[in-house]
Amino acid sequence: MAMTMAVTLLLMLCAFTAAVGEPSLSESDKILKLPGQPPVGFQQFSGYVTLDSKRKRALFYYFVEAEVDPASKPLVLWLNGGPGCSSLGVGAFSENGPFRPNGQGLIRNEYSWNTEANMLYLETPVGVGFSYDSSNSSSYEVVTDAITARDNLVFLHKWFLKFPQYQQRDLFITGESYAGHYIPQLAELMVQFNKNKKLFNLKGIALGNPVLEYATDLNSRAEYFWSHGLISDSTYKLFTSACNYSRYVSEYYRDSVSPICSKVYSQVSKETSRFVDKYDVTLDVCIPSVLSQSKIISPQQVTERVDVCVEDETVNYLNRRDVRRALHARLVGVQKWEVCSNILDYELLNIEIPTINIVGSLIKEGIRVLVYSGDQDSVIPLMGSRSLVHRLATEMGLETTVPYRVWFEGQQVGGWTQVYGNIFSFATVRGASHEAPFSQPERSLVLFRSFLKGNPLPESF
Known about the structure:
The chain has helices spanning 2-20, 87-96, 145-162, 179-194, 214-227, 233-241, 245-252, 259-272, 310-318, 321-327, 356-364, 382-395, 436-439, 441-453, and strands spanning 44-50, 57-64, 75-79, 99-102, 105-108, 118-123, 132-133, 171-176, 202-208, 368-374, 400-409, 412-420, 424-429. By secondary structure, the protein is of the alpha/beta class. It folds into two domains: 1-216 and 313-461, Rossmann fold (3-Layer(aba) Sandwich), CATH 3.40.50; 217-312, no CATH class. Strands 1, 2, 3, 6, 7, 8, 9, 10, 11, 12 and 13 form an eleven-stranded mixed β-sheet that branches. Strand 12 (412-420) and strand 13 form a beta hairpin. Helix 4 packs parallel to helix 11. It is globular. The termini are far apart. Mean pLDDT is 89; it is low at 15-23, 287-296 and 301-308.
């Protein structure tokens, strides 16, 4: 019902804009130069897309055209997770965007994904980063997956009014973590909308360390902890029998944590230690870190943040007035830009909604799907993602077209991969964290390039 309403809303919006007309506004959003930015040859844009006629709700975007020949390159939408974390601060300025903050300025990211595509980063839902609701900025209403998908659909339609030259371009959606909910649900709306009026040229989606079925994803954490030596044999037994992690999360968000779950989780936390980054178990922690992209998945672990201090520089940079001016951004209802929103009221129990079934429906529509896992992430471990992919492929009758094997980046193993039916792929990124493009930028770029071209990952160096 919610999906039908969202599509009906957008159809009405299309009819309205077709009748009234709206000029291309991309030039007003053009970034002349970001403070401290090195010279580049590509164009950048940022600004707002309003979601309703009263112009009180708006989503903020940052768009960078491809470095070379942008007219021949596809359009890629990137979404970070949380829910409630910024695609601008995390995706663009920490992971796969063209720049990273360094001191008072920016340095080039030589493994930026805009070497391969035109990259669009969206701060979603409303209340995240520079996105705002000016009619109710101090007390946001509860936001759900359905609302987020609807708003993102409307955003894309209205963004195409600003950039009509991209409307027929091949479109891919990528992201990580809770974007395992955002992306399939948005893609499902796009497919349904296209059956009434062709607007979105969606070719594929790529999901990094995604939440697809919370019980499978979360409960694979126990095996990861044990196999990597983070918990004892006895604690592993308790964590898989007395109270598994999905039960603990469900109880926690219902304010009804049982004594046994409290006991088990306290023991798990004690053994894994707050001085190990659960998003990258081999990485040294950065004590001043501020990022908590997957806070929904790790309740009560406020001392555990994913970062190696670059996030602190991002926060400092994006809170500079000259930077906000250059980005055409403003603060509404908040005192400062935050990596993850502290005003967003998200319906956290939406994590229990499975999206793996939506992935199956997208594959049936001919949309390519890649699920990839940084293999050092214990929050959404590769074991859960791999088992979900294999199970779905089996249920759909997809035969293995690329047997499980290593893939290469340069002369090193980049990870492992398997492909089903030449349309559904799983890959690990060796040595990568929950944020694969941040921790393994070279390998992640190889993965991204292969995904866009629809090619298997390199099997030799």
